[in-house]
Design a protein that fits this description.
Strand content: 15-25%
Order of helices and strands: HHEHEHEEEEEHHEHEHEEHH
CATH topology of the largest domain: D-Maltodextrin-Binding Protein, domain 2
Number of helices: 10
Helix content: 40-55%
Distance between the termini: 49 Å
Structural class: alpha/beta
CATH superfamily of the largest domain: Periplasmic binding protein-like II
Length: 302
């Protein structure tokens, strides 16, 4: 409660005390005889006329202030909704549409994880933060799980779930550049921007290529990665093909874009979620299998 709320309540207590004193005084006067009693009744009426409006005003102010305090308190969830079950805080990446939509707290991966764990009665609360930070918070117990993680991620001591999706990473160049990229080695001398933590996700061969390339860089914001690719015109970009198609379509609606070449020189990359509690991991795996068997999984990723 705010400062003024406390002041209002204290005022109400004081005024009620005054009223009690007036009543006690009236009782004493009544013991002294009828004439004095008439005077006391008149005095009592005067006291009531003074006290009752003040009490009403204080009570109204306290009620209004309580309403303000309630409005300023953090919301527990959507109006009229009750938790469906135990709450799980799951970490997701910060910028990878259509997989994660941080603005609307949605996207393919949050919906998929919520659906899988919901089969066991869990309620997923998505938390959006960089991959490395998410893993750190899972280890500390602040988060209950996070993803995606690749097959080469260090998840020792944590419970790794089943593979839920494959990312198809590609290299993209402008058609006008006329580049022939048929193998990983062909990228070694090219100016290149890859997605954040590509060295970790793409495996040791890719990491070695990146380390040998002085013009290699990584970018967290993949919308900006794709937009800069079309504006700078001097780079090859490495990212998931779904993500590129999503941002390319949005840019095309603004008149930005030109023909490109898609170089499929990387194997498909399995993606996983990792959990602090093996029981939660087991619930996720079971829910994922149910989604796949029912056909709902195919509809979600289509």
């Amino acid at each position: 409660m705010t400062y003024w709320g406390h002041r209002a309540r204290r005022g109400a207590v004081v005024l009620r005390g005054m009223a009690v004193c007036a009543v006690l005084a009236l009782a004493c006067v009544l013991a002294c005889g009828a004439p004095v009693a008439r005077a006391a009744r008149e005095a009592d009426g005067t006291v009531r006329q003074a006290v009752e409006p003040a009490l009403g005003a204080v009570s109204q102010h306290a009620a209004r202030q309580a309403a303000v305090d309630d409005a300023e308190a953090p919301a527990a969830g959507p109006a009229g909704s009750a938790p469906a079950g135990p709450e799980l805080r799951i970490g997701f990446s910060t910028s990878s549409l259509p997989y994660v939509d941080m603005v609307n707290k949605s996207g393919l991966e949050p919906r998929l994880v919520a659906a899988a764990l919901g089969r066991s009665g869990y309620r997923v609360v998505p938390v959006f933060l960089p991959h490395a930070r998410a893993l750190e918070l899972v280890r500390k117990g602040t988060l209950d799980g996070c993803g995606p993680v690749g097959r080469h991620a260090d998840v020792a001591g944590l419970a790794l779930g089943d593979m839920y999706l494959q990312y198809r990473n590609v290299a993209v160049s402008l058609e006008a550049a006329g580049l022939e990229i048929n193998a990983l080695a062909d990228l070694r001398a090219l100016p290149m921007t890859a997605f954040h933590n590509a060295r970790v996700f793409m495996g040791p061969d890719f990491a070695a290529m990146a380390d040998a390339n002085p013009r290699y860089e990584e970018q967290v914001d993949q919308r900006a990665q794709v937009e800069a690719f079309f504006h700078r015109r001097d780079r090859v970009i490495v990212l998931d093909e779904r993500i590129f198609a999503f941002h390319r379509a949005r840019l095309a609606a603004r008149g930005v874009g030109e023909p490109v070449r898609i170089h499929r020189v990387f194997p498909a990359q399995d993606r996983f979620f990792v959990f602090r509690d093996p029981a939660v991991r087991d619930a996720f795996d079971a829910g994922l299998r149910q989604l796949q068997e029912s056909g709902e999984f195919r509809r979600m990723v289509r």
